[in-house]
Amino acid sequence: MTSIYRSLNLILLGPPGCGKGTQAKVLSEKYHVPHVSTGDMLRSEVRRGTELGMKAKEIMDRGELVPDSIVGSMILRRLDEADCARGVILDGYPRNVEQAGVLDGILAELGRTLERVIVIEVDDDVIVRRLGGRRSCPKCGRVYHMEYNPPRDDATCDDCGIALVQRDDDREDVIRERLRLYHEKTAPLVQLYEQRGLVVRVDGNQPVEGVTEGIVEALGTPLNR
Ligand code: ADP
Ligand code: ADP
Ligand code: ZN
Predict the structure, then answer these.
(1) Is residue 168 part of a domain?
(2) What is the pLDDT of residues 112-128, one digit of tens each?
Protein backbone atom coordinates (compact mmCIF):
# COMPACT_ATOMS: atom_id res chain seq x y z
CA MET A 1 0.00 0.00 0.00
CA THR A 2 1.42 3.37 -0.88
CA SER A 3 1.05 6.30 1.39
CA ILE A 4 -0.39 9.61 0.31
CA TYR A 5 1.09 11.43 3.31
CA ARG A 6 4.77 11.84 4.12
CA SER A 7 3.66 12.95 7.54
CA LEU A 8 0.32 13.26 9.22
CA ASN A 9 -0.32 16.25 11.44
CA LEU A 10 -4.00 16.34 12.27
CA ILE A 11 -6.17 18.54 14.42
CA LEU A 12 -9.37 17.08 15.85
CA LEU A 13 -11.78 19.95 16.36
CA GLY A 14 -15.20 19.86 17.94
CA PRO A 15 -17.16 20.64 21.09
CA PRO A 16 -16.36 19.01 24.43
CA GLY A 17 -17.65 15.44 24.38
CA CYS A 18 -17.85 15.13 20.59
CA GLY A 19 -15.45 12.17 20.76
CA LYS A 20 -12.04 13.74 20.06
CA GLY A 21 -10.23 11.64 22.67
CA THR A 22 -12.06 8.47 21.67
CA GLN A 23 -11.28 8.90 17.98
CA ALA A 24 -7.72 10.10 18.60
CA LYS A 25 -6.90 6.85 20.37
CA VAL A 26 -8.14 4.73 17.44
CA LEU A 27 -6.47 6.94 14.81
CA SER A 28 -3.21 6.98 16.74
CA GLU A 29 -3.03 3.17 16.52
CA LYS A 30 -4.11 3.09 12.90
CA TYR A 31 -1.75 5.78 11.61
CA HIS A 32 1.14 5.21 14.05
CA VAL A 33 1.35 8.79 15.24
CA PRO A 34 0.98 9.92 18.88
CA HIS A 35 -2.19 11.32 20.40
CA VAL A 36 -1.38 14.70 21.94
CA SER A 37 -4.09 16.06 24.22
CA THR A 38 -3.55 19.28 26.14
CA GLY A 39 -6.45 18.29 28.44
CA ASP A 40 -4.71 14.99 29.31
CA MET A 41 -1.39 16.80 29.81
CA LEU A 42 -3.01 19.32 32.14
CA ARG A 43 -4.86 16.61 34.11
CA SER A 44 -1.57 14.78 34.55
CA GLU A 45 -0.05 17.97 36.03
CA VAL A 46 -3.06 18.22 38.36
CA ARG A 47 -2.68 14.57 39.48
CA ARG A 48 1.02 15.06 40.15
CA GLY A 49 0.25 18.19 42.15
CA THR A 50 2.77 20.37 40.31
CA GLU A 51 2.66 24.14 40.61
CA LEU A 52 1.28 24.38 37.08
CA GLY A 53 -1.30 21.70 37.93
CA MET A 54 -2.53 23.53 41.00
CA LYS A 55 -2.93 26.73 39.03
CA ALA A 56 -4.66 24.96 36.14
CA LYS A 57 -7.09 22.96 38.28
CA GLU A 58 -9.04 25.98 39.50
CA ILE A 59 -9.41 27.26 35.96
CA MET A 60 -10.39 23.86 34.57
CA ASP A 61 -12.95 23.28 37.31
CA ARG A 62 -14.69 26.47 36.22
CA GLY A 63 -14.66 25.32 32.59
CA GLU A 64 -12.48 28.23 31.52
CA LEU A 65 -9.38 28.16 29.32
CA VAL A 66 -5.91 27.86 30.82
CA PRO A 67 -3.67 30.78 29.66
CA ASP A 68 -2.36 30.48 26.09
CA SER A 69 1.26 30.89 27.26
CA ILE A 70 1.02 27.82 29.51
CA VAL A 71 -0.51 25.46 26.95
CA GLY A 72 1.69 26.97 24.23
CA SER A 73 4.93 26.04 25.97
CA MET A 74 3.54 22.60 26.84
CA ILE A 75 2.68 21.90 23.23
CA LEU A 76 6.01 23.24 21.91
CA ARG A 77 7.94 20.92 24.22
CA ARG A 78 5.77 17.94 23.29
CA LEU A 79 5.88 18.46 19.50
CA ASP A 80 9.67 18.75 19.66
CA GLU A 81 9.93 15.19 21.02
CA ALA A 82 11.20 12.53 18.62
CA ASP A 83 7.99 10.49 18.39
CA CYS A 84 6.13 13.48 16.92
CA ALA A 85 8.47 13.85 13.94
CA ARG A 86 6.17 11.98 11.52
CA GLY A 87 3.00 13.56 12.77
CA VAL A 88 0.57 13.97 15.65
CA ILE A 89 -3.10 13.86 16.36
CA LEU A 90 -3.86 17.06 18.23
CA ASP A 91 -6.86 16.88 20.56
CA GLY A 92 -7.90 20.01 22.41
CA TYR A 93 -5.30 22.28 20.80
CA PRO A 94 -5.61 24.90 19.36
CA ARG A 95 -8.70 26.24 21.14
CA ASN A 96 -8.73 29.88 19.99
CA VAL A 97 -7.33 32.05 17.24
CA GLU A 98 -4.24 33.02 19.29
CA GLN A 99 -3.32 29.36 19.84
CA ALA A 100 -3.81 28.62 16.14
CA GLY A 101 -1.20 31.32 15.44
CA VAL A 102 1.18 29.83 18.00
CA LEU A 103 0.74 26.40 16.41
CA ASP A 104 1.55 27.81 12.96
CA GLY A 105 4.77 29.23 14.39
CA ILE A 106 5.75 25.97 16.07
CA LEU A 107 5.09 23.87 12.97
CA ALA A 108 7.03 26.31 10.78
CA GLU A 109 9.96 26.25 13.18
CA LEU A 110 9.97 22.46 13.22
CA GLY A 111 9.58 22.29 9.43
CA ARG A 112 6.23 20.54 9.55
CA THR A 113 2.90 21.01 7.82
CA LEU A 114 -0.69 20.64 8.90
CA GLU A 115 -2.34 18.00 6.71
CA ARG A 116 -5.96 18.03 7.85
CA VAL A 117 -8.38 19.51 10.36
CA ILE A 118 -11.13 17.03 11.22
CA VAL A 119 -14.25 18.75 12.50
CA ILE A 120 -16.49 16.38 14.48
CA GLU A 121 -20.01 17.81 14.46
CA VAL A 122 -22.33 16.86 17.31
CA ASP A 123 -25.59 18.43 18.50
CA ASP A 124 -25.54 20.19 21.88
CA ASP A 125 -28.16 17.89 23.47
CA VAL A 126 -26.07 14.83 22.52
CA ILE A 127 -23.03 16.50 24.13
CA VAL A 128 -24.76 16.87 27.47
CA ARG A 129 -25.71 13.14 27.51
CA ARG A 130 -22.21 12.11 26.50
CA LEU A 131 -20.42 14.18 29.13
CA GLY A 132 -22.91 13.19 31.84
CA GLY A 133 -22.10 9.50 31.33
CA ARG A 134 -18.36 9.91 30.76
CA ARG A 135 -16.06 8.10 33.18
CA SER A 136 -12.32 7.60 32.91
CA CYS A 137 -9.58 5.53 34.43
CA PRO A 138 -7.48 7.62 36.83
CA LYS A 139 -4.48 5.38 36.08
CA CYS A 140 -4.34 4.93 32.29
CA GLY A 141 -6.77 7.65 31.16
CA ARG A 142 -8.96 5.29 29.11
CA VAL A 143 -12.37 6.84 28.52
CA TYR A 144 -15.71 5.03 28.92
CA HIS A 145 -19.39 5.88 28.79
CA MET A 146 -21.69 4.15 31.26
CA GLU A 147 -24.30 3.60 28.55
CA TYR A 148 -22.63 3.82 25.12
CA ASN A 149 -19.23 2.33 25.90
CA PRO A 150 -19.42 0.66 29.33
CA PRO A 151 -16.60 -1.19 31.06
CA ARG A 152 -16.89 -5.00 31.30
CA ASP A 153 -17.45 -5.01 35.07
CA ASP A 154 -19.40 -2.50 37.03
CA ALA A 155 -17.37 0.66 37.07
CA THR A 156 -13.75 -0.46 36.87
CA CYS A 157 -11.19 -0.07 34.08
CA ASP A 158 -10.98 -3.16 31.78
CA ASP A 159 -7.20 -2.77 31.65
CA CYS A 160 -6.32 -1.71 35.20
CA GLY A 161 -9.19 -3.09 37.32
CA ILE A 162 -9.44 0.10 39.34
CA ALA A 163 -12.49 2.27 39.94
CA LEU A 164 -13.43 4.70 37.17
CA VAL A 165 -13.92 8.35 38.08
CA GLN A 166 -15.99 11.24 36.80
CA ARG A 167 -14.11 14.38 35.78
CA ASP A 168 -14.64 17.35 38.09
CA ASP A 169 -15.57 19.50 35.09
CA ASP A 170 -18.25 17.12 33.75
CA ARG A 171 -20.92 18.79 35.91
CA GLU A 172 -23.91 20.35 34.24
CA ASP A 173 -23.12 24.00 35.04
CA VAL A 174 -19.48 23.59 33.99
CA ILE A 175 -20.49 21.72 30.82
CA ARG A 176 -22.68 24.67 29.87
CA GLU A 177 -19.78 27.10 30.34
CA ARG A 178 -17.43 24.90 28.30
CA LEU A 179 -19.97 24.68 25.48
CA ARG A 180 -20.44 28.44 25.54
CA LEU A 181 -16.68 28.99 25.32
CA TYR A 182 -16.44 26.45 22.52
CA HIS A 183 -18.95 28.34 20.40
CA GLU A 184 -17.36 31.70 21.21
CA LYS A 185 -13.63 30.93 21.02
CA THR A 186 -13.03 27.60 19.29
CA ALA A 187 -15.71 27.31 16.61
CA PRO A 188 -14.27 30.32 14.66
CA LEU A 189 -11.22 28.14 13.94
CA VAL A 190 -13.35 26.03 11.60
CA GLN A 191 -13.68 29.00 9.26
CA LEU A 192 -10.02 29.89 9.60
CA TYR A 193 -8.89 26.41 8.54
CA GLU A 194 -11.63 26.19 5.93
CA GLN A 195 -10.04 29.17 4.18
CA ARG A 196 -6.85 27.12 3.98
CA GLY A 197 -8.71 24.16 2.48
CA LEU A 198 -7.84 21.83 5.36
CA VAL A 199 -11.25 21.07 6.83
CA VAL A 200 -13.05 17.76 6.65
CA ARG A 201 -16.42 17.56 8.41
CA VAL A 202 -17.57 14.32 9.97
CA ASP A 203 -20.97 13.55 11.50
CA GLY A 204 -20.27 12.80 15.17
CA ASN A 205 -23.88 11.93 16.05
CA GLN A 206 -23.32 8.26 15.19
CA PRO A 207 -21.70 5.30 16.94
CA VAL A 208 -17.92 5.41 17.51
CA GLU A 209 -17.13 3.03 14.61
CA GLY A 210 -19.18 5.10 12.15
CA VAL A 211 -17.32 8.26 13.12
CA THR A 212 -13.97 6.50 12.68
CA GLU A 213 -15.02 5.26 9.24
CA GLY A 214 -15.99 8.78 8.24
CA ILE A 215 -12.59 10.12 9.29
CA VAL A 216 -10.59 7.35 7.66
CA GLU A 217 -12.53 7.72 4.45
CA ALA A 218 -11.80 11.42 4.43
CA LEU A 219 -8.10 10.88 5.11
CA GLY A 220 -7.44 8.12 2.62
CA THR A 221 -4.73 5.50 2.77
CA PRO A 222 -3.01 4.97 6.11
CA LEU A 223 0.71 5.59 6.44
CA ASN A 224 3.04 2.67 6.05
CA ARG A 225 5.32 1.89 8.91
P1 ADP B 1 -12.96 18.28 26.47
O2 ADP B 1 -12.38 17.37 25.45
O3 ADP B 1 -13.99 17.62 27.32
O4 ADP B 1 -13.35 19.61 25.94
P5 ADP B 1 -10.26 18.76 27.40
O6 ADP B 1 -9.77 17.55 28.08
O7 ADP B 1 -9.78 19.03 26.02
O8 ADP B 1 -11.85 18.68 27.48
O9 ADP B 1 -9.98 20.06 28.27
C10 ADP B 1 -10.35 20.13 29.63
C11 ADP B 1 -9.98 21.51 30.17
O12 ADP B 1 -8.56 21.70 30.09
C13 ADP B 1 -10.57 22.68 29.39
O14 ADP B 1 -11.89 23.00 29.82
C15 ADP B 1 -9.57 23.79 29.71
O16 ADP B 1 -9.76 24.31 31.02
C17 ADP B 1 -8.25 23.04 29.72
N18 ADP B 1 -7.61 23.02 28.38
C19 ADP B 1 -7.37 21.93 27.59
N20 ADP B 1 -6.78 22.28 26.45
C21 ADP B 1 -6.64 23.63 26.50
C22 ADP B 1 -6.13 24.61 25.60
N23 ADP B 1 -5.63 24.28 24.40
N24 ADP B 1 -6.15 25.91 26.00
C25 ADP B 1 -6.63 26.28 27.19
N26 ADP B 1 -7.16 25.43 28.07
C27 ADP B 1 -7.16 24.11 27.74
P1 ADP C 1 -13.90 14.66 23.85
O2 ADP C 1 -12.46 14.20 23.90
O3 ADP C 1 -14.24 15.31 22.54
O4 ADP C 1 -14.28 15.51 25.01
P5 ADP C 1 -14.57 11.88 24.49
O6 ADP C 1 -13.84 11.07 23.47
O7 ADP C 1 -14.03 11.93 25.87
O8 ADP C 1 -14.83 13.36 23.90
O9 ADP C 1 -16.09 11.36 24.53
C10 ADP C 1 -17.05 11.88 25.46
C11 ADP C 1 -17.93 10.74 26.00
O12 ADP C 1 -18.77 10.24 24.95
C13 ADP C 1 -17.17 9.54 26.52
O14 ADP C 1 -17.87 9.00 27.61
C15 ADP C 1 -17.13 8.56 25.34
O16 ADP C 1 -17.07 7.22 25.77
C17 ADP C 1 -18.47 8.86 24.67
N18 ADP C 1 -18.43 8.77 23.19
C19 ADP C 1 -17.44 9.17 22.36
N20 ADP C 1 -17.79 9.01 21.06
C21 ADP C 1 -19.05 8.50 21.07
C22 ADP C 1 -19.98 8.10 20.03
N23 ADP C 1 -19.67 8.22 18.73
N24 ADP C 1 -21.18 7.63 20.43
C25 ADP C 1 -21.50 7.52 21.75
N26 ADP C 1 -20.67 7.87 22.76
C27 ADP C 1 -19.47 8.35 22.44
ZN1 ZN D 1 -6.98 1.92 33.18
Answers:
(1) no
(2) 999 999 999 999 889 99
Ligand nearest, relative to CA of residue 52:
1
- Closest ligand 1 atom to the C-alpha of 40? 6
Burial of 126 by CB count in 10 Å (0-12 exposed, 13-18 middle, 19+ buried)? middle
Is 185 tagged catalytic? no
**pLDDT tens-place string over residues 57-104:** 999 999 999 999 999 999 999 999 999 999 999 999 999 999 999 999
Is 196 an annotated catalytic residue?
A: no
Question: Which range marks the domain in which residue 117 is found?
Answer: 8-125+173-219
Which one of the listed residues 43, 78, 86, 134 is annotated catalytic? 134
- Judge whether 54 lies within some domain: yes
